């Protein structure tokens, strides 16, 4: 072969399948390494995506993650005076959204269940309001009792104070 390289010396060669594309050369050791490396990378990526897909709905929450998220959400709600146990927006949905946002961001199996009666209050009525909520999640046997206590002046739109505390275990029946 005068003036041209032998095909075994090239890493890329023109496809023999009638296209004008370049492909890895299986007769060249570097071409073989690129073929094997590409296949390993593709299979490794598919395996990793498969494992990630398996973990999405199965893992749920861990007890320490749930404890941390419930504690952080309770502290956040204690600093706000917009939502309370008797507010028009259900407090349990606000609590659940905050737990998800401050935790893993996973909603799988998270449950915030009222454990006591809703306070009887008018939107502009005043006085104290309190209610308990049990927080549980799939993946852990941990449960937490969240106690919300708020005080509102009559005619006020917002609460004067909101106190949210957390205790281990489900809320006792009232």
Instruction: Give the radius of gyration.
Output: 30 Å
Structural class of the secondary structure composition?
alpha+beta
Oligomer: single chain
**Annotation, overall tally of beta strands:** 6
Overall body shape: rod-shaped
**How many DSSP H or I helices?**
3
Q: β content, as a range?
A: 15-25%
Strand order of the largest sheet: 3-4-5-6
The pLDDT mean sits at 83
**What is the string of helix and strand elements?**
EEHHHEEEE
Low-confidence stretches: none
How far apart, in Å, are the first and last alpha carbons?
Answer: 94 Å
Biggest sheet, in brief?
4 strands, antiparallel
Q: Considering DSSP H and I runs of 4 or more, what fraction of the residues is helical?
A: 25-40%
Quick take:
This protein is α+β, with helices and mostly antiparallel strands. The chain contains 3 helices and 6 strands.
Describe the structure.
The protein contains 3 helices and 6 strands; from the N terminus they run E-E-H-H-H-E-E-E-E. The protein is of the alpha+beta class and about 170 residues long. A 4-stranded antiparallel beta sheet has the order 3-4-5-6, covered by helices on one side. It has a two-stranded antiparallel ribbon with strand order 1-2. Strand 4 and strand 5 form a beta hairpin. Helix 2 packs across helix 3 (about 90-100). The model has no long low-confidence stretch (mean pLDDT about 85).
Comma- or semicolon-separated keywords:
174 residues; alpha+beta; two-stranded antiparallel ribbon; 3 helices; 6 strands
Secondary structure: elements and pairs:
Blueprint: E1 12-14, E2 22-24, H1 29-58, H2 63-79, H3 91-102, E3 111-114, E4 127-136, E5 143-152, E6 161-168
């Amino acid at each position: 072969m005068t003036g041209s390289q032998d095909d075994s010396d090239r890493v890329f060669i023109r496809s023999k399948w009638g296209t004008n594309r370049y492909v890895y050369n299986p007769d060249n050791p570097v071409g073989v390494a690129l073929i094997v490396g590409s296949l390993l990378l593709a299979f490794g990526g598919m395996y990793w995506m498969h494992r990630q897909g398996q973990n999405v709905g199965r893992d749920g929450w861990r007890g320490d993650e749930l404890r941390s998220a419930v504690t952080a959400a309770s502290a956040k709600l204690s600093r706000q005076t917009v939502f309370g146990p008797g507010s028009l927006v259900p407090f349990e949905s606000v609590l659940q959204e905050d737990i998800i946002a401050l935790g893993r961001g996973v909603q799988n199996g998270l449950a915030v269940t009222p454990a006591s009666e809703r306070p009887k209050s008018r939107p502009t009525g005043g006085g104290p309001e309190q209610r308990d909520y049990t927080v549980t999640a799939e993946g852990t046997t941990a449960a937490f009792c969240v106690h919300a206590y708020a005080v509102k002046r009559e005619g006020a739109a917002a609460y004067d104070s909101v106190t949210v505390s957390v205790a281990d275990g489900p809320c006792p029946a009232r």
